[in-house]
Amino acid sequence: MPPMKLKQPPNPASQTLTGTSSHARLLVRETLRISANLASAPPSLAPSSSLVAAESTGLRPHEANFGLVDEQFVDSSLRLICYEEIDGRRWKYFAENGGSKQFKKGSIRAVGLHSPKAPVDDLMSFIRPYVVPEGFPDSVTPSYVPYMTWRALKHFFGGAMGVFTTQTLLNSVGVSRNRATPGAVAINWILKDGAGRVGKMLFARQGKKFDYDLKQLRFAGDLLMELGAGVELATAAVPHLFLPLACAANVAKNVAAVTSTSTRTPIYKAFAKGENIGDVTAKGECVGNVADLLGTGLSILISKRNPSLVTTFALLSCGYLLSSYQEVKAVVLHTLNRARFTVAVESFLKTGRVPTLQEGNLMENIFTFPWSKHRPIVLGPRFKDAFQDPNSYLAVEPVYEKERYIVTYNPSKGNIYALLKDQAKSDDILKAAFHAHVLLHIIHSSNEKQSSSQKHRENENSILMPTTTDLQAHIAESYKMVSALYGPFKSKATEQGWMMSESLLNPGRARLHELVD
Question: Strands (DSSP E) along 457-509, which ranges?
Fold first, then answer.
């Protein structure tokens, strides 16, 4: 009979020793593995060493990133050198202590203090350098964002419109028809482009007006752009008139292109806070190109469904013109052209205060085009336009003996005329325009008093014809008011940020010369 083996009860002490020894072996193995990894890790993996060191000292995670050096690395050979920040992302630089308060050469390690970003944030970080200037928003004025928003919308509608106009022109010229020869198509297309270039050159002579009435011409150029697009779409209805219609449309669109190009730099200059006009211009054009591409892509998808050209043109044109209007209204300029000067002077005469830059630009009338002849004040006119009667000139000439201008009212034409003398400088032109507005204000006030009993005005914008005696009294009164108010007006306008040293009032070229005996 084989010997029987008795099963002994498990010894708790031996189990405890076995578990403890296995845990110890596992801990030693992991410690050696981590030490080996740290020893062979490149500098880019240094954050793990800092975290291990922090955990070994019992620090919390946020203390590991932002705690003091002595508290973080009590038992570590790494010491903090400095902090660095790049585009909102922070870094720490460490070096290995070599003893004697010196660091080992080549031991610098960088530790990032940023957490992984969401994909959307990474996408925005990638796009941001392409669409906003460096240092945004501190590098541009507050009006930059609304302007670029409306500009992007305008280019979006413009890009969408371009697909339909190009498709219509190609169909009208005969590209899709077998009977059209390639030579005839090419000649018609070249003639169309040539007519546009001629129109561009002829309109370039209006260059100075681009500075005087920047917003008005910018909006007028966009109106011409949509007019040209409408004419191009009209070639679909009368393809036999392709050449004259396409030439007319291209002339309008090239004139609009000249206007847009000429007014671009002053607008971007108004947004730049420093010497970063090039950066602002580049980012603005990039935004326009991106929006144009998006509009083109969407329009290609829509065009496959053959929508109504009339409906499409109406919707896209309304969006384009609305965006264009809001775009120019968002521009805040510091200079005074006729429209902004009128707003500033009228507000000062009525309320005693000059509007701020934002208020003055917002109240500026965009629809007062430079070629409009219906203006109550004419600055720098010819003598024959201001005076029909020589006696009227002799009556007012002594009043302005000390001035370099003469302001009068012509009852037959219903306009205020500010004639400039040959010695007139920039400030004299500004004062003459201010005097003209004061005289207009006095005549309007006199008319309002008379209108309660007499209804001589056909509309509220017309001026009652004062008698010769009343006119001389009004001129004398205006001279006294200008002497008292012109200085305070300039001071308050300067305080609000308006540039009074240079104006864009666009006076006429006629000058009065004194008689030489």
Answer: 503-504
Torsion angles phi and psi, residue 109, rounded to 5: -130, 145
Strand partners, 408: 417
Q: Would strands 89-99 and 109-112 be described as parallel, antiparallel, or unpaired?
A: antiparallel
Write the pLDDT tens digit of every residue in 412-458.
888 999 999 999 999 999 999 999 999 999 998 887 777 655 554 44
Q: How far is CA 206 from the centre of its chain?
A: 23
For the CA atoms of 365, 371, 376, 377, the dihedral, rounded to the nearest 10 degrees, stands at 100
Phi then psi for residue 503, to 5 deg, are -125, 160
Contact 369, 259 (CB under 8 A): no
Assess whether 292 and 268 both reside in one domain: yes
Domain interval for residue 222: 128-332
**Residue 154 is encoded by which pair of tokens?**
């305008």
Question: What is the C-alpha separation between 104 and 97, in angstroms, rounded?
Answer: 6
DSSP state letters, 127-149: HHHHHS-TTTTTTB-TTHHHHHH
Q: Is residue 511 part of a domain?
A: no
State the DSSP code for 116. Answer: P
Assess whether 275 and 156 both reside in one domain: yes
Q: Which phi and psi (to 5°) does residue 378 adopt?
A: -115, 120
Angle at 241 between CA 238 and CA 247, to 5 degrees: 125
What is the C-alpha separation between 348 and 362, in angstroms, rounded?
16
Q: Name the 3-class secondary structure at 378.
A: strand
Question: CA-to-CA distance for 71 and 443, rounded, in angstroms?
Answer: 81
- Look at residue 29 and tell me if it is in a domain: no
* pTM, full prediction: 0.74
Pairing of strands 89-99, 102-103: antiparallel
For 171-191, how does the pLDDT look when each residue is reduced to its tens digit (9 = 90+)? 887 654 555 556 666 776 777
What is the token pair recorded at 130? 């392409």
3-state secondary structure of 336: strand
